[in-house]
Amino acid sequence: MSGRVVIVTGTSTGVGKTVATATLASRARTDGEKVAVVKPVQTGTADGDCDAAEIQRLTGVEVHELTRLEEPLAPDTAARRAGVEIPAVAAYAPPIAALTGDNDLVLVEGAGGLLVRLDTDGGTLLDLADALLAGGTATSFVVVTAAGLGTLNHTELTVAALRARGYEPDGLIIGSWPGDPGLAERCNRVDLPRVTGVPLLFGIPEGIDNHSQPN
């Protein structure tokens, strides 16, 4: 078996990447695929928050955390403040690639937005994707975005940054779709694929993380 890697990035923090990752994992398992999830860098562990634990709760899939930092900050900032050395982002590529040997799909959840620094040398998810591809691992991106005002700009900027490095996103996911969407949200749902040229895969109902496994 030689699986593929899909990196789940967001237009910012708090847009719903964790629930989007859980939803993608759940859907893949329903389709009969074997799935693993990786969180290369988890910050904010001192607050008791843990994306890996949430994904595990929602889906039951195997989740791997590679680096943990206590303060809820960008990883490079949290590492500098703690006075600790963290791996260069390319060092995460081999353990992630190794998981493709036993899984059809390996989902990698980023931290914050696409260009958040995951190490103290300025490495980002783009550099991780480059390292995976250089090692022969099929790698692509999904972009999680917000529903409300500002999302068109943030999403276009994220997609432009991906394309500038040679990556065409597989699709967009609205990370939290309100139960009673307003005019802006309804228009954005139509406009997001129009202005980016990237298909909208689905929207996740608001509050689904407070319930059982997403479908």
TrEMBL record:
Enzyme Commission number, as recorded: 6.3.3.3
Pathway given in the UniProt record: Cofactor biosynthesis; biotin biosynthesis; biotin from 7,8-diaminononanoate: step 1/2
Alphabetical list of HAMAP family matching this protein: BioD
Enzyme class: ligase
Record has Metal-binding as a keyword: yes
A GO term for molecular function: ATP binding
Residues noted as binding Mg(2+) in the record, renumbered to the chain: 18, 51, 109
Name recorded for this polypeptide: ATP-dependent dethiobiotin synthetase BioD
Residues where ATP binds: 14-19, 51, 109-112, 175-176, 206
Oligomer status and interactors: Homodimer.
Organism: Nocardioides panzhihuensis
GO biological process: biotin biosynthetic process
Homology family: Belongs to the dethiobiotin synthetase family.
Cellular localization per UniProt: Cytoplasm
Residues noted as binding substrate in the record, renumbered to the chain: 43
Catalysed reactions, as listed in the record: (7R,8S)-7,8-diammoniononanoate + CO2 + ATP = (4R,5S)-dethiobiotin + ADP + phosphate + 3 H(+)
Gene3D superfamilies: P-loop containing nucleotide triphosphate hydrolases
Active site: 39
Listed cofactors: Mg(2+)
Role played: Catalyzes a mechanistically unusual reaction, the ATP-dependent insertion of CO2 between the N7 and N8 nitrogen atoms of 7,8-diaminopelargonic acid (DAPA, also called 7,8-diammoniononanoate) to form a ureido ring.
Keyword line: ATP-binding, Biotin biosynthesis, Cytoplasm, Ligase, Magnesium, Metal-binding, Nucleotide-binding
InterPro entries found in the cross-reference section: DTB_synth_BioD, P-loop_NTPase
PANTHER family listed in its UniProt record: DETHIOBIOTIN SYNTHETASE (PTHR43210:SF5)
